[in-house]
Amino acid sequence: MQKPIYHRLANSTELEEGKGRPYELEGHRIALVRHEGTVYAIDDLCPHADASLAFGPVENGCIACPWHYAEFRLSTGEALSGPTPRGIRTYAVEESDGQVSICLEMTASGEKAETSSED
Length: 119
Ligand code: FES
Hints:
Blueprint: E1 7-11, E2 19-25, E3 28-35, E4 38-43, E5 58-59, E6 62-64, E7 71-73, E8 79-81, E9 90-96, E10 99-103
Antiparallel strand pairs: 1-10, 2-3, 3-4, 4-9, 5-6, 6-7, 7-8, 9-10
The structure holds FE2/S2 (inorganic) cluster.
């Protein structure tokens, strides 16, 4: 089995507790969010109307869309409330030696990610 490839995306110091930041990697718009010390990587675009989730409030393991308040669980991408039932993708994250890296092929739970035909 091929070893998953991690791409360096940010310095740890860029990510403030309780906040997200948007990034782009190989055509994917990704939000990195530090919450209670852990860094999560999720799709940045809200599936409702493409707001940047990176700028949404973070609370209780969830991030809310800043436009119409759809709420998503950071660890799974599950949609919990709001105007869309569609969840978002998560990405596997590694943080070490002051660097944050993500894997496009794996979800946060370590499963192989489904890739859409648009990728
Ligand atoms: S754009 Fe995110 S809930 Fe509408």
